[in-house]
Amino acid sequence: MRHPLIKIVLLILALILFACQPTLVFEQVVVTSTSVATLTNLPTPAKPTPTSTPTPLPTPTQTPTPVTMDAIVWASDPVIPILNYHRFTPNLWDETSGMVRYLGDLKNDLQAYYDSGYSLISLDDLLDGNIRVPPGRRPLTLTIDDAYFANQLALNDQGEVSELSAVGAIYQFSQEHPDFGFEIAMFANFGDKYYGNLFTGTWWYVANGWQENLAQTIAWGIEHNVYPYNHTWRHPHLDQLADNLIQPQLALNDEKLREYLALAGHPEYAYLLSNYIALPYGRFPATDKGNELLTSYLDPEGDPVRAVFEAGYEYSPAFASPSFTDQFDPMHLPRMAAIPSIIKLITETASTFPAAESCTLILSMGSPDVKSIMDAIQQSISSGLCPSGVYILDEGVFIARYGSVVPYSPDY
């Protein structure tokens, strides 16, 4: 057992060591709304500023695809024969003349026209200045007076054009020679004839239903570029007709034509027809008043006379000028009978008449509007690729002469 004095000393040392230890104090932290707001409103650290701005990639540019257009060009004004046929017969009877042509002779005529470089254009194209034929070829217009006879135009039992008719022969030729074209004007007199709708042996005869057959024949023609126009009601000598009877002759004929169109189920076809008049016997009325009444006539749709076609120039040959020339007179358009002397004249002299040329225009950008076409024509001429002249395109006719290019539009 240890000595008591030693215990007392040890106790005193222990008390001294305890008094020297640090006092630990715990502080309570109270979280309040003020402190939360303080924490949430701390400033947002700024984003680091890049040391350099990246260079954007270049946007690719598209080069416009050039547009090319083919134009028919008349470096010199075309010369246009307008030929006039009447009736046609098999090669069995009747002497061929200006009034009667054998079908066999007609087929020879067509071959002669084609071999001489002619292609057909319509009266509308003639009046519009749209003288469009294949390159290297020349325009020709065919008309048939005193329609409708079946030997001029008839349909077969299948409703197609009969090759026993003149129009059928021309149609067949055009199918064999597409660059010849197929355009015919029929000047009709509906008041002085019936229509032969029954073919027996070598000729047509009138039978029941001829009006319906004629109506269908006229409609087929309009659908195939064979257009009927006015040759008066009963083919009078206008220079011997009283002035007050001139317009009724035109009106009765137009009204009957529209009756046939209605009978065919196509009254709307009347709106496809221009108001053209062919003079019976090639004679104008005898008085100024009569001529005024002739040229001021309005058709049932209210359209004025656009052109008057004469006849009888086979004895003093005359050719039509295109409507974009100063020589053009729509109220005095010459026609020549298709007789052997005239056919020989126009075929043997064809090479002396201007032929159509072609030119490819390049439009640098955009759609082919009038301005871009005019610019392309001017550029083609300036660069020597194309000649000055009259340019025929689907978009219109353009006169490119004397350093300028202007659109052409007939003012009649």
Which topology of the largest domain does CATH recognise? TIM Barrel
Q: What is the CATH homologous superfamily assignment of the largest domain? A: Glycoside hydrolase/deacetylase
Compute the number of structural domains.
Answer: 2
From the N-terminal CA to the C-terminal CA, the straight-line distance is 154 Å
Q: Work out the number of β strands.
A: 17
Rg estimate, integer Å: 46 Å
Quaternary form: single chain
How does the overall form come out from the CA principal axes? globular
What is the second-level CATH architecture of the largest domain?
A: Alpha-Beta Barrel
The largest pleated sheet is described as: 6 strands, parallel
Tell me what the structure shows.
By secondary structure, the chain is of the alpha/beta class. It folds into 2 domains: 64-78 and 354-412; 80-353, Glycoside hydrolase/deacetylase (TIM Barrel). 28% of the residues lie in helices and 19% in strands. It has helices at residues 4-19, 33-40, 103-115, 123-128, 166-176, 210-223, 246-263, 288-295, 340-348, 370-382; strands at residues 67-74, 82-85, 87-89, 100-102, 118-120, 138-147, 184-188, 198-200, 203-205, 226-230, 276-278, 307-309, 336-337, 357-363, 389-393, 396-401, 404-408. The strands form 5 sheets. Strands 2, 5, 6, 7, 10 and 13 form a 6-stranded parallel sheet that branches. Strand 15 (389-393) and strand 16 form a beta hairpin. It is globular. The N and C termini lie far apart (154 Å).
